[in-house]
């Protein structure tokens, strides 16, 4: 896993044996064990790392009015019960333009207003709730629906 993994050598003397993984990948999910030996004493602990991913199809950036699919997947082993989507902190009603199905959200005609922070929230049969965020960028025209620009003769117009 090198060079994505590090241990803070300076923290070891204070009893901090933390492992840092940056960036985390889907395949990093699983059980990790730390084992420390000091004199004749052996200490160990186990930590399970769960990973959640949000993917975009087609890949970013998305073009305005072209359909897209945001998918949310987790390494959690229980059955998925509910998926909720939030756009800029607000719950998205899944009807009309937005269709949600088993961890995925389809946006049939994305507009510039759909750009920003999207968060999926997965709830499992064991009541575990896991969420992740994706920052969606959309290429398009961000202006009035029927743009008309007036400029004086002899001046510049943008």
Automatic annotation (TrEMBL):
Membrane association type: Single-pass type I membrane protein
GO BP terms, alphabetized: adaptive immune response; interleukin-15-mediated signaling pathway; positive regulation of ERK1 and ERK2 cascade; T cell activation
Gene3D superfamilies assigned to the protein according to its UniProt record, in alphabetical order: Immunoglobulins (2.60.40.10)
Family annotation (InterPro entries): Ig-like_dom, Ig-like_dom_sf, Ig-like_fold, Ig_sub
SMART domains for this protein: IG
Residue ranges constituting the Ig-like domain according to the UniProt record: 50-131
Subcellular location: Cell membrane; Secreted
Family: Belongs to the LAG3 family.
PANTHER family noted in UniProt: MICROFIBRIL-ASSOCIATED GLYCOPROTEIN 3, T-CELL SURFACE GLYCOPROTEIN CD4
Protein's recorded name: Lymphocyte activation gene 3 protein
Lineage summary: Eukaryota, Metazoa, Chordata, Craniata, Vertebrata
